[in-house]
Structures are given as structure tokens and as C-alpha cells.
Amino acid sequence: MDDMSGSGIKRASDEAREELRAAMVRLAEGDSAALEQIYSATRVKLFGICLRILGDRKEAEDALQDVYINLWQRADRYDPQRASPISWLATFARNRAIDRLRTGKVRGGAVPVEEAAPLPDETPLADILLIDAERDAQIHTCLKTLDDKAQTYIRAAFFEGRTYAQLAETADVPLGTMKSWIRRGLMRLRACLEASEVDANGNGGARHER
Amino acid sequence: MSDDIQMIPPKDPEDPVMRERVIAAEYSLGLLEDEELLTAREREATDADFAARREWWDDWFVPLSDDVSGAQPGDHVWNVIAAHLDGRADAGAEAGAGADNVVLLDMERRVTRWKWTAAITSAAAAVALALFAFGPNSTPVSQDAPALAVNEAAAPLMASIPIGETPLRLGVTFLPGSDEILVSAAGLTADGVHDHELWLVPEDGSAAQSLGVVVPGEERRLNLSDSVAANMGDGVKLVLTREPLGGKPEDQDAGPVVAEGALQQV
Lengths: 210, 266
Known about the structure:
The complex is a heterodimer of chains A (210) and B (266).
Chain A: H1 3-28, H2 33-54, H3 57-73, H4 85-102, H5 125-128, H6 133-143, H7 148-160, H8 164-171, H9 175-198
Helix pairs in contact in A: 1-2, 2-3, 2-4, 3-4, 6-9, 7-9, 8-9
Chain B: H1 16-29, H2 34-46, H3 48-61, H4 76-88, H5 97-112, H6 118-132, E1 157-162, E2 169-174, E3 180-184, E4 194-201, E5 209-213, E6 219-223, H7 226-231, E7 237-244, E8 257-262, E9 264-265
Antiparallel strand pairs in B: 1-2, 1-9, 2-3, 3-6, 4-5, 4-7, 7-8
Helix pairs in contact in B: 1-3, 2-3, 4-5
């Protein structure tokens, strides 16, 4: 990606992020019109997350409805200082999707661990609300320091919403073995991430603009 | 990457020291279930350090979502969300012309999606009439009452009011000459914050008359006063409003209209 398009995207991204943050503040103050603006800006990204976890369009749409209705009901719980709004919203959406997955009524996605069929990217705007290019680079860097098994299964947990029991069954290993693989990986991951936080020089590695 | 954080991995995956280092990560990722999950939830509510550590993991994992392709949800999704907003926004405030237009637009979108055929309505009518013919009863009606002959001289009036984007309907049945209506809200659930009140809109333009608060998930008979019963007729409009628990408070305007239908002679 050459620098010219990179800075244009970055500017659009920064503006979008600020507008979203302002809308979240208004929402917390009870402005219902802000919800439509937030929906418009974030629905593609959040629906993508729900769809990836639930593997079923109707279920994902129901989950998405819950996300925004719940957002309206608890908008005052978002702290604009703490996290970027899209970061908070994406976590919120993922958690709701996983809650729905755990009710046991959803198929639970027989999607293979490695790669779901890529969904058409219908709105270029989806790329503008990147969560955080720098932190994205860092988590990827740290994940790559783990052994293959730990990487694979931690990703499966994040992207597919799998539990220890489900992962053990799919991999055909005892539960204790899967827990051991993942826990060791998480320990290493924690050490790597904490090291990056105290590293005053900033971690190497280029910023990845998309 | 520094390798000086070396640990000799314990062989036991249940080792408490190891577990404690990563339990918040497991919780954040959604790896836990059953008792472990319940324990983690309780701990999050009471242990601020644990809650903070969970958020720390959430914040680190979430940029991975940038790798997930976006997707476009159906247009109807926003309609459902907007319908929930009606109950919370401007509660108790005057309904200005602008607000009325917004609610009416929502109504038109919902009404055009109502595809129930007459066949379904008359099947529901047969069941409702059978239950109705058993006489005044303040308790929920039984689901398996046998059919009874219908008095064909008193052709019943029915309304089938669609609820938002769902396939659920509020069923209203009235036998002319009686002083009761049967309201069926099967499949609907309470949200703990709102009640829904059913109103008759008299054709002469006089004030709407309350038929009572709907009990979600049940079929109930509601008694009608003479003046209300007199206004029941073919084509008469019924509306459902969203109110606080217990129905419209005496000193306030009715809440927003969230569904409407009309009585029809079956």
C-alpha cells in the first residue's frame, strides 16, 4: 500500500472513529437518534462478526438486533475514555453472539477452523472502521510466537466461539491435553503482550494500513 | 522477542498458578462453560482486578476482528431495533406531528409485511370461538376445549394484529351481544419494563377507549363496559400502545402506537 492512499484511509478512519465516539456519547445521554447513526456506521462490521460466530444468517440477524437494542438499554456503560467505540462494540457483539451460540439452539457452525468461505465485502466503509492497526499488528506478532497448535486453537476460540470441550472433540484429544496446549499458549501470549506494553521504544514492525 | 520470561510448563493443566495467569483470557475468549463459566461470571461481578484483566484481554483480542469480513444485514433488522426505541424515547412526552409520522411510517412497513391469509385467520377463529363459548371465566382459557356449535346469528368480529416483524399476532375476538372480548397473546413475552394496552378507536372520532392491558403469552377474557361494547363493529380500528407496567398512567397521554388492526366480521 503506497503512502498516499495510506494517509487518506487513515484520515477517513480517524474521522469516522471520532464521529462514532461522539455518537456513543450522545447515545449515553439518551439521544435515540444517535443509535441510527451508530447502526449505519457499524452494522456491516458487527454483522460480519455475528455471522462468523453463528454461521447462520437468520441467527446472526437476531443477534445483531439484540446487540443494538441492548446497546440502547445500556449505553451509559460505555466509557469513552477507556476503549475506542468500535473496539467496545465489536467485543460487545462477539459476546452477544457467543451467548446465543451457548443456548444450544444454534447449529454452532460446522465451519472449518482455518478459513470460513469469505463473504462478499459489500461496503467499502467496513474497512474504514478498523479497530486499531497498531494493536492488530501486535496481537498478530505475539500470536506468531506461539506453537502451531496453540495458535490454531486460540484463533478457533476467538473466531468460531469454540469451547475447550468442542475443540478437544474436534481435535480428538483429551480435554486436559487441549487445555494444556491452550493455557501454555495463553501464558506465552500474555508475556509477549505485557512486554510490548512496557517497551518504551515501541515494538518494531510496520503499521499495517488496509 | 525476549525469551527471558521462561517457565518450565507444569505438566498438570489444572495447576492453579498457571490457571490463575490465564483464566481471564479463557473467559474473554469464551472457552469456559458450565460451572467454570458461572464461576468466572460471579468473579467478574465481585473482583475488580479480575474484571479489569478480562477487559485487558478483550482489548488485545478484539483487533483480530478486523480479519473478519463485513456483511450486510437485511433491511428489516433496523425496523425491529427502531420499534424498541419507540418505547424508550420520549416516554411521557407530547407526541408531536413529527413523532406521529415516524410511528406511522414504521406501521406501514410492518403492515405491508403482513401476509397472513384468510384461511389462517378463520382456523384461528374456530379455535377462539370454541374456547369463547364456554362462558365467562377470569382465568386463562384451556388450550384443548372441544369445539361447540356456533350461534350463526351473532357473527363474531375478529382482529388479528401483527406484532412487528415477527409472525406472531395478537388475536382479538368479540361476540356481538356479549360484554367480553377474548385476547390471545400466545407466543409473546413480557420484557419486564413495558405493558401493552389495547384500545378501540371509535368511528365517530371520540376518544379512544381502553380495552385493557394485554397479558403476554396467554389468552384472557376482558370485560367490556356497555359504552365500549356498543362501539365494537365491523371495520372498527384497534390499536396497541406501549405503556409502563400496569398500563397507561391516569395523568399521562397514551404511549406510542406499536401495532394496529381492525375488527372484521368473520
